[in-house]
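User: Please predict the structure of the protein below. I'd like the answer in structure-token form so I can feed it into my own downstream comparison script.

Assistant: Understood. Taking the following sequence of 86 residues as input:
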Amino acid sequence: MTSIINAIKALDADAQVVVNGEPSNQAEYEANVKYISGADENGNAIYKDTQDFTWDQVSAKKAELQTAYDNNEYQRKRAAEYPSIA
């Protein structure tokens, strides 16, 4: 199973982001995903006014990751049935 945060991190491994819940559409994405640009003198996050990635980019990457995860189901099950001898 994959998530929005996994998709964002796949697009940019260094992305600093806060995600509330699991957005399922553009409006939820814009409301619940905040990218961090830095911190103030007290260590509190400073959020960007814009998103680093569009909903279309993130949802497409999430679908791509989910497809890869689904396609590897056989390998995951097989590994459990036949553990490594190492």
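That's the full token string. The first strand starts at residue 17 and ends at 19.
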